[in-house]
Amino acid sequence: MSAFQTSTDRHPGNLPGAVSTDPTDGVVFARHPFLTDSELRSLLERAQIGFERWRDTAATRRAALLHRMASVLRRRQNEMALMATREMGKPIIQARAEIEKCAALCDWYGENGPRLLEDESTSVEGDRATVSFLPLGTVYAVMPWNFPYWQAMRGAVPIMMGGNGFFLKPAGNVVGSALLLEQAWQEAGLPDGVFTVANLTRSQSPVVIADDRIAAVTLTGGVAAGRQIASQAAAALKKSVLELGGSDPFIVLADADLDAAIRAAVTARFQNCGQVCIAAKRFIIEAPVAERFTERFVGAVKALRVGNPLDENTEVGPMARADLRDELHGQVEASLAAGARLLTGGHAVEGPGCFYAPTVLDQVLPGMQAFDAETFGPVAAITIASDADHAVQLANQSEFGLSGSLWTGDRSIGRRLARRMNTGGVFVNGYAISDPRVPIGGIKKSGYGRELSHFGLREFLNAQTVWSDRL
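That's the NAD-dependent succinate-semialdehyde dehydrogenase sequence above. Prediction below.
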């Protein structure tokens, strides 16, 4: 997934811009001009003024505003969910759940943020040392389209709770969602310039990173975009946090509860049409239960309801864009040519829109696209492991290290094996989710740094030590 992939068009007056296209039917329903360089300079100045005001706002007042934002999100839930569904095809039930998750995030930091920002003191050689957590400035955030509200809020809420500003470059196909989010912050009473949406061209992004009014950078997106942003931030000596791709393993051992594992596997792979960084993608099944798992899993996948995302009965909607669907199909075709076997799906759905049939491949081995690459769509790849150790070995045989799942009837074995998995998170008898109470982030080519919990809150804060004598 690339956060820099942007639909563009020409507008009246020859102003280039981003385009909102409904992936259900291919209809363009909104156009959003890119900022001119002059407009960008004005936004950066406004962001600096907003930060200078916000950093001096007491943590308790910031927390109160987060609670107000939660109320606004719940009040505008249907409107905002509809925009996400129209812009990137998320089933409406899942889109509403995304808004509620953002509201719960605001409430959690509103409840816990002031406590997590308190000074920490200790005695050193008879003197007193105090560590204070102080804001750095405005953080430039390049965010993707797959969760147009949650991804932005997951970064913005802890960053802003800490007293920083948030300068958002949304993906080009979800600018409408980003603008609704900006309106919601304004309605909640956030000072002008603290949360800013900037619809930028590719050439403007490095200008923002280099600007002295930007203190740090965060990105959720693909590996190529991460390399680009990280190098630009490094050249400016600015901190960056990257949450990049994933090819998450979903291990099922022979003693696992197969009913529970299969239910979780279907959700973990096919929610949001499989367009989730932390989605389970590689299903590594211990040999004694591989046949039973595969047969029942394929049956459950075939039963998924694919259709119009505005229909509340739909479980799988369209992919966000046609080029993403075509890229995914190329990965499937390459894997089949390399020896994988197609059990269901494997084709675009006939008719309008960017639909792709929920797909299951088995006999998938390292070296195949379905094993090595990030398959960002409704495709599950099954690989058989000879035993638990082999399963972990296969799980770690990836350039990615975002998260993973491990299913077993013995929790002690699950915890032991989890520590051997080279990922930022492991879910024993569960599937990967993001929750404000625990950090999320990856290792290897899945990026670095953490979001959420107190770890995410302090990523963009200056841990300032003040050592004073006791006179």
